[in-house]
Structure formats: C-alpha cells, structure tokens
Amino acid sequence: MYLRKTILATGVAISALATASFAHAEPTAEVLHWWTSGGEAKAVAALKEDFEAHGGKWVDSPVAGGGGDAAMTVLRSRVLSGDAPAAVQLKGPAIQDWAEQGALADLNDVAEAEGWDKVIPPAIQAVMKYEGDYVAVPVNIHRIDWIWANPTLLAKVGATDAPKSWDEFNALADKLKAAGITPLAHGGQPWQDATVFETVVLGLGGPEFFQKALVDLDEDALKSDTMKAVFDQMRKIRGYVDADFPGRDWNLATAMVMNGEAAMQIMGDWAKGEFLAAGKVPGKDFLCSAAPSDHGYLFNVDSFAMFNVSGDDKVEGQKLLAELIVGEKFQETFNLLKGSIPARLGVPLDKFDDCAKKSEADLLAAQEAGGFLPSMAHGMALRGHLSGAIVDVVTAHFNSDMSSDEAVSRLVEAVELAKD
Amino acid sequence: MGASQSTESNLTARIQRHLSKIVVAPSFAASLFFVYGFILWTGYMAFSKSRMLPVWDWAGLRQYERLWQMERWHVAIENLLVFGGLFIVTCLIIGCLLAVLLDQRIRAEGVLRTIFLYPMALSFIVTGTVWKWLLNPGLGLESMMHDLGWTSFKFDWLVNSDMAIYTVVIAAVWQASGFVMAMFLAALRGVDQDIIRAAYMDGASLPRIYFGIIIPSIRPVFLSAIVVLAHLAVKSFDLVIALTGGGPGYSSDLPATFMYTMAFQRNQLGVGAASAMMMLATVMAIIVPYLYSELRGGKKNG
Q1: Closest C-alpha among A207, A218, A251 to residue A375
Q2: Of A17, A271, B27, B140, whose CB neighbour count within 10 A is largest?
Q3: Which residue spans traverse the membrane (chain B) (predicted)?
Q4: What is the per-residue pLDDT across B108-146, written as a single tens digit (0 to 9) for each?
Q5: Chain A from 393 to 412: CB within 8 A of any B CB
Q6: Domains annotated on chain A, with CATH
Q7: How close A22 gets to chain B, by Cα (Å)?
Q8: A80 to chain B: closest CA residue
C-alpha cells in the first residue's frame, strides 16, 4: 500500500516535472549573421543580451568574411538541407527572393500586436513584406547620399559649408584642386563607384528620375540625356580624386578627410563611425551634410529575415526575437553602436549625435516629398544580377576613358541582358 | 587448428593481394563522386534556369548565350590570354635560365636553390597582398623612388586599368618561376655527361652545347612545365583577389573570379556554371592532347 502510494507520488511528481519543463521550454533562435567586427559585433551582442534577458536561448552562427557572400553560401546549403536558421541577416530584394522560394515565416501576428504598420516607414515596410505579409524585420536605416567634409580644408578656399548644388560642388572642387588639395577622397572599388554614381543620379535627375532609372529600370530613363549628364559628372568627379584611389577601402578614404589629405567624401553614414571613433566632433572637426538633391534620401536598411522553423521553442524564439528587434530599446542601443538611425520612427533621439538627428529630419521631409528611395548600390532597389549589371558599367566607365554616350548604350544593353 | 591456420593465412594472402585496391578504393570513390560527379552536376546546371538556388528546369543553351553576350566575360577571356601567355613564357624563360646558371656547379648552390624555390611555398594570397603593397604607387616602389629623390619615376600599373593584368603576371611569375627552375634543374642533372664531354672534345662552345644538345634533350620537361603552368593560369583566383580585386573596375577579372562573382554574389548560378564549363573546356584542350601524346609515347617506348 505504502509502496503503491510512493510510486504514484513519484509518477505524479515526474509528470509534473515533465510538464513544467515542457511549459518552460526556452524560446530558442539561431541567428546567422556576418557582423563580426567592431561596432557591428557590439551591436549584435546587445541584441543577444536583450534576447537572453527575456528568457530566450541564443544560438550564434556568425559567418565572417566576404561581405556576406560566405554567409549566403552557408544559408543556401542550410535551406536546401531543410535546416534553416531562425533569423538570417538579409536585406533588400534578397528577402523577396527567399520568400518566393517559400522559405520565410509569416510574422503578421507579432506585427499586429506590436503595431509595426504605424511605426515603420511605408517604403521600408514594402521591403519587409512579401505579398502583404511581414517576413522580415528592419534593424536600422543608413543614409547613403552624404557628403563628409573637412571644414579646415574648405575654409582654405573660403567655403564654410559643403556644396548645395552640383554646380557648386564642381566649382568648389575646382578651387580646391587649384589650391593643391585633393577635392574628393574615394576608394576605387565597384561598390564605392556605384555609391557616388547613385548619389549623382539622385542629385542631377531628382527622386522621380531615380525611381524610373534605377528602381523601375525604365529604358527611356536609362538612355535619356539626364543619364548622359550623370556620366559627364562622373567623369568630372574622376578628375577630383587622387591618383592612388583604385582598390582603396572606404575607411581609408574617410581617414583622408579626417587627416586633412582630402576635403570631402561621398559615402553612407557608416563613415560617421570612423570620425566618432577617432574622437572627432560633428559640426566642428567634420561636417555631415546631405549630397545636393531635391529632398532625396537614399536608404540602406539592414534586416533579419525569419525562416521557417519547426518546433514550438523555435517558433516562440523567432517571434520573441522579431518583437525585440523592432522594439524601441533595441533600436536605440543598436543604432547608437552602428551609426545609423532607428528603423522605427518616434524613437527619442536624445542620445544620438547631430548627424543622426539631421538624418531623421531629412527622412521625414523626403517621405513627404516622395524622395525616400532605396539605394541601388547597396542592394536595396534591385536584385543582385540587375544591380550587378549596372555597377559593372558604372565602374568600367569610371575607370577608363569611355564616353558618356557609350556608357549609356552599354547600360541599356547590360540591363536588357540581365533582365531575361 | 591446422585448418583454421590455413584459412587465416588464406585471408591474409587475399588481403595482401587486394591491399592496394582496398587502400585506394575510398579515395577513388570520393574523387569519382566529388570531382566527376560534381563536374556532371555543374554541366547540367549550365543548361538549367538556375539563379539563386539550383533548379532543374531546362534552358538549353540560353546561359551560354548570355555568358558570351557579357562584356565582362570577354574582358575575363582576353585577360586570361594575356596573363596565361605571358605567365607561361616568362616562367619558362626565367626558370630555364636560372636552372642553367645553377647547373654550373657553383658554390652555395643549395642555398640559392632554396631561395629561388621558396616563393612557391607561399600561398597566393600572401604573394598577392605583398605585391599589392609593393606596387601601390602611394605606398611601395613609386613612393620609395620619390622619397629617394627620383620624382619623375612612375610605376602605376596596379591602378591603371589597361596595365593591371600585367601586375598579376609579375606576381605570378615571381611565385612560380622557382618551381619551373627546380623542374629544369632536375632534368639538366639527368642529361648524360658523356655526351657533353664528347661535345667539348669536338670543340663546341658552351652556348652551343646548351642550345644544340642539352635543351633539346630535356624537351619533355618543357611540355610538363607548360601543362602545369597552363592549368595554374586558368584556375588562378586568389592571386587576383588579393592583388587587384579584379580592378580597377573589372579590368583584371579572370574567368575564375568572373565565375565566383556570378555564382556567389549575383545569384546567377546558371551563368556561373556555364563559365565554369568553359574553363573546364580550356583545361581539357590543354591536358587531353598532352595525355594522348604521353600515353602514345609510353606505348612506343614500352
């Protein structure tokens, strides 16, 4: 009798334990990313801490190197073998590519509960959604079309601010060059050439032209006189960079502006991180100003795509992760570390620097004016094979003495070839 | 007991008889699958509509058509011809010259041989990075000459899109010519000394002996060296990545870097596979006649 009771009690206790442990199965999320160095690594660590503080189990899968190429190769094999990580650092139309393969999970219930539609800018929502369903979450907004300038060098030719139009830009650059100062710090890598190119397209053509040419790939826009003018300007810019530019990394170009070896750099706001890391003060040691354009704003948004996973703990973990990523706390911590601004509007920017505040103010103005556009050079506007075809032409033109007419006809040809 | 002993020795004998086959079997199976299996698979991919993920939909020759319409592929092919041609010829000349000079029974030959052969021990990534620094006008040779006062000195091939491919040749020759030298040196030592002495007796000059007797007698080594160098040229990838990154622009792209860009960066697996098959065809065009002549020659001698 006693024995039976004991057995029963033990049985109950065991089953109670089992249910308890089942109910407390930790929400787990495996995160595949390539933020493995500097501020980026710190930013990921912040997310991990936040996730663990909410009772989650974080499985880290960093794949270093190749600017994400290596990670994409890993991702391909993981998905093909039916073992996708819960969250993958993925951005732009690549999200749509994976969603088309049916590999991404639906986040709509989290989105509704958290009211994402109200806080995420519509243009970014479009990137995060596939056929109306959220499949990815944005972590930040980088602006591409910045000019970073060294005020001491500008003062030497009597300028107090970065140029407000491209004519002014050329006039200023000519003056700088005449004074023996390298006007523009640039690194001759295809993506950097393309960064300058798209900034010029936005500046000379305006937001509407940018949309037509580099987002919709409208043939008339691609072969228009405006596009020829863009290539003419690129040829001028080629004359404003120093002779040793090919192959130089972007941060070395930023260092040239910092050390007074060149006056300006056209680069996204990750360049700010270099200035800040060197203890420079915005507005005093360096100037951040928007490249000339009519209320344009090119964005580059990093995001995590959520892949289909099985098992309650993994699904829970994925939802928790998505909720935290879009949450105000993470958006603030992450972006302070990364140099970008939050991808959700309405996060107080008290702790951010002046450049970040300007970035958000410009963002809101651009959104009003219809100039808030995805970057082509950074894989936000077009799928890889299309932007790759454009970048090939841009970089071939910039690094040779190809005429603008030939560049335009090659551009049309390359886009046509990549489309089919 | 006697019976079991005999089965045991029987087994041992059988194992011994087949030992070589048993040992080789795993690597044979692995290379059958991982090399030839994947060649077939890549061959199929080149006929498919694959973009981001491999798919099996048949696309016929479309990927090859697209490949040959790409300006960048033409640049890569032209670069391969320039690079391959110069690399092979220069390596042969320098390697042969070094071997002949070392063959003069000089002092400290062992040390010199090691010095010349040593670059081969480095990875192409290291070679590429070091030469990138040396050839960078702002850091290396040019800036050193300027610092020394020779300010008109100009050597900007690395940053000049017409000349960048030649810097790849320089670095590759530096790396591989020592290896070619070793091949030639071994062959030179194998030449029958009696013939050379006989030629001396007849009053032949040293250059005459080399050009008339020794070099013709080591002709097979030329062929081997060319084959080794040619396939090094076709598959060279890391050197370009480290040295020029394919730049400026894509002016120093080679087929291997082109393939990598298409397959892994641009979601164009189909075009990437097609370019890989073109590379395979190039290597086959070199290797097959070589193997053919080798095998036929083998029969003749045997």
Answers
A1: A207
A2: A271
A3: 22-47, 80-102, 114-134, 163-188, 209-234, 269-292
A4: 888 888 888 888 888 889 999 999 888 888 778 888 888
A5: 395-396, 398-400, 410
A6: 28-142+301-357 (3.40.190.10), 143-299+375-419 (3.40.190.10)
A7: 37
A8: B53
